[in-house]
Design a protein that fits this description.
This protein has 264 residues and is mainly alpha-helical. The chain is 60% helix and 7% strand. The strands form 2 sheets. Strands 1-2-3 form a 3-stranded antiparallel beta sheet, with no helix packed on it. Strands 4-5 form a two-stranded antiparallel sheet. Helix 1 packs across helix 2, helix 4 packs antiparallel against helix 5 and helix 6 crosses helix 12. The chain is elongated.
């Protein structure tokens, strides 16, 4: 069994340790096959992904040479495996990846599970998403995105990461861990200043930590930022959090499990 990791630099782990994939073209080939998550990728798409505008004269032969090289590499990593992981289908090339072998697929599975979990199950949600977010070792593909297919996949995984962070912060706030997540929320809001959900969560965490003035200052700065960058006003949800803070809404000072349900 192999473990493929793309939430960070491309990494393949065997029972005896990590295995190196050398060469930009080989890495791009592996990454492209991995982000398809078991679906075939056409030869034309692989060629564009690997070479872009600098396509070789004999594209089919060049691609087949790299596929054969990858097959040999993977076979050497799994000498006991009979069928090749890389197979050819009418619609293209496919890399077989079993459940639990690709970190990105496991991460998305955890996020979707958390999205369907009951809001009252905050403890398990926080634990589940904490473990899922720990899978990230850096930017997708380690900042080596490859071509358009990998870039689109990277953006999709990054959006799931933002969603996972929001859901985890929701769970932690429901549990009353306002002060404990302040540093992480501040960093998330700073790194993603146009993502209003992080701003809402930071305001609630600050208010419930006894820092009402700081919470309102965060809102004022967010309003200015939205006006300057996008020419828009804060969303109704964000304004609702500000109003709740200004009027000392009992929901904010009450059971943390119900706070976000009422304000989100």
């Amino acid at each position: 069994m192999l473990k493929f990791s793309i939430l960070g630099a491309l990494q393949i782990r065997t029972e005896s340790g990590p295995a190196e994939i050398s060469g930009d073209l080989q890495r791009t080939l592996v990454q492209t096959l991995l982000v398809s998550e078991g679906q075939p990728v056409s030869g034309e798409s692989l060629v564009e992904e690997m070479w872009g505008a600098a396509m070789p004269d004999n594209q089919a032969n060049a691609l087949q040479a790299h596929v054969s090289r990858l097959r040999r590499k993977l076979r050497a990593l799994e000498p006991g495996r009979a069928p090749s992981r890389v197979t050819i289908h009418p619609s293209g090339y496919r890399l077989t990846v079993a459940e639990g072998e690709l970190d990105a697929a496991e991460f998305i599975r955890s996020v979707r599970l958390a999205e369907t979990a009951a809001p009252v199950d905050a403890t398990n949600t926080a634990r589940l998403l904490g473990a899922a977010l720990a899978l990230w070792r850096g930017p997708v593909f380690g900042g080596f995105p490859g071509g358009p297919l990998c870039e689109l996949a990277g953006a999709r995984y990054e959006e799931y990461r933002m969603r996972a962070m929001e859901l985890r912060f929701d769970a932690e706030l429901r549990l009353g861990h306002h002060a404990a997540v302040l540093a992480e929320l501040t960093e998330a809001h700073t790194n993603h200043p146009l993502r209003e959900r992080f701003c809402e969560q930071l305001m609630i965490a600050l208010y419930c930590s006894g820092r009402q003035a700081d919470a309102l200052d965060v809102f004022r700065r967010m309003r200015r930022h939205l006006d300057v960058e996008l020419g828009i006003e804060p969303s109704p949800a964000l304004r609702q959090v500000e109003s709740a803070i200004l009027c000392h809404d009992p929901a904010l000072a009450g059971d943390a499990r119900s706070t976000l349900l009422q304000l989100a």
